[in-house]
Amino acid sequence: MKNVVLIGFMGTGKTAIGKRLARLLGWEFIDTDAEIERLTGKSVARIFAEDGEVRFRSEENLLCRKLTQRERLVIATGGGMVLNPENVALLKQNGVLIKLYADPEVIIGRVKAKKERRPLLKGNLEERVRELLAAREEAYSIADFAVDTGKQDPDSSAAIIYDYL
Ligand code: S3P
Hints:
The chain has 165 residues and is of the alpha/beta class. It has a single domain (3-164), classed as Rossmann fold (3-Layer(aba) Sandwich), CATH 3.40.50. Helices cover 54% and strands 15% of the residues. The chain has eight helices and five strands. It has a five-stranded parallel beta sheet, with helices on both faces. Helix 1 (14-25) crosses helix 8, helix 2 packs across helix 4 (53-67) and helix 4 runs parallel beside helix 5. The chain is globular, with a radius of gyration of 15 Å. Bound molecules: shikimate-3-phosphate. The site of shikimate-3-phosphate has 10 residues, from loops.
């Protein structure tokens, strides 16, 4: 059985929906940011600040390699995971890729509260979100199925994915 991999921009609900979907499927849930924090003993913000983004991306790639050896996982990826084509190839090998998306206004509203936990959103939040969204549109388009998570609550989004699977 393939893994289910949630991809998409920050604030699209990958963690909230992933947890619910894992419950529905009776599968294990893994959030790659949380897993990297556990393995390194550092927060994502600290890794970016002390070791740099390149180091964080290599931790993501390492984890990606490990996770693709496993099955029956619901994986919530960090928003930049699929920027690396090698990660995409690995995740696709034994995973169904689901893109979560939402309007920029919805995303901005959601990420505002925990801005300091997301190092890439430093500076003018609205500008950064719009800029990064435009730059990443193509990277997220490789998914097998997509859900607009601004249209319903996380339980309903998880149910939509469950029905698709
Ligand atoms: C990132 C998204 C974050 C985290 C890191 C980088 C990105 O994860 O991995 O701050 O490049 O979009 P979330 O999408 O879970 O916020």
